[in-house]
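Holo prediction — (2S)-2-hydroxybutanedioic acid.
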Amino acid sequence: FWRNLEPQAPDALLAIIRHYREDSRPGKIDLGVGIYRDEQGRTPVMAAAKAAEGLLWQTQPTKAYLGAEGDVVYTALLAQLALGESLARSDRLVGVQTPGGTGALRLGAELLARASPGATVWTSEPTWPNHGPIFTQAGLRMRTHRYYRAGDREVDVHGMLADLAHARPGDVILLQASCHNPTGATLGPADWRQIAGLCERKGLTPFLDLAYQGLGDGLEEDAAATRLLLNELPDALVAYSCDKNFGLYRDRVGALWVQSESSERSDAVYSNMLALARSLWSMPPDHGAAVVRTVLEADDLRAKWSAELDTMRGRINALREALGASHPALAPLARQRGMFALLPLAPAQIAALRAERGVYMAGNGRINLCGLTLATVPDLLDALRHYLPE
Ligand code: LMR
């Protein structure tokens, strides 16, 4: 029965978790998969999330089914956080809880494929490696646009807009809303306005992937581009992940919002989202979303969470400053944002760093800065000293 199945290579990013775990060298450094780590190298459950879990344990009356939409209070509170009060109230916007950001992206992809099977989805080159499979598995065609200029390691806005000029009306642009994975290179407010203008002129629909709200410049700042595009354009999608900013990785907490040109259209969109969700996962897992709802509902927990997030962002940006000041080839890191940066390394150098120094990073030279502490920055610099260009 299974003879037509070709063996698949393990996911390269997730394989790093296992390889690192199996390495017994004491000085090994894990800069692989994107999880936050504190200055002690731990990924603790956030104190606000722990407190919310305690409350849930004491007070949650039932675990009976909710529905394909998940917890509507969670989705409404998260909409206020991500999109702001006025968009969250819009009758042109509908949202559902999803299993993580990946579930949101996949549900959005299925909805796009159902609404417009001929649409092409444009992504940056490079992007998160799972973006491609998520959209192509839903049957959509994908094309890439330039994003990153390897020379100065800034966003190639000119190249991006020139490539997107080839998009056809009805196409979709998948845009990372902040903290670009893998480059860390960030679009400025004027660039986002140009993208909004392009979408309007050409009839393109933006699909915002907002997976790191609060880990770049701040909760409001990291959501500004998403809000701008939703305010300027009739149609849009937003995939949200609580993995990193609530530290709920394995609980799989996310949401998908879809904006349409009228509330009547939104009714049809919402019914399709529910029908698709029902066939994909029936109902999203509740626990993590209940934790987020509990945190956002209670002023004290919300303040505690927000302060913890400030600390996380402060640590990431302090590491960016330290690395950026340490070597001319790393200077762009101080200007970039989020957990990731691309180091200018060849594949053989990346392999040698792993084999000889126990430094683990993705095969394209992406590092998760959170894998470092201020104490291990010199160790990384020592490992890199023969490899970085002057
Ligand atoms: C990453 O890019 O490392 C994270 O988004 C984790 C993942 O699922 O790939």
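READOUT: The pocket of (2S)-2-hydroxybutanedioic acid is lined by residues 13, 33-34, 128, 130, 181 (CB under 6 Å).
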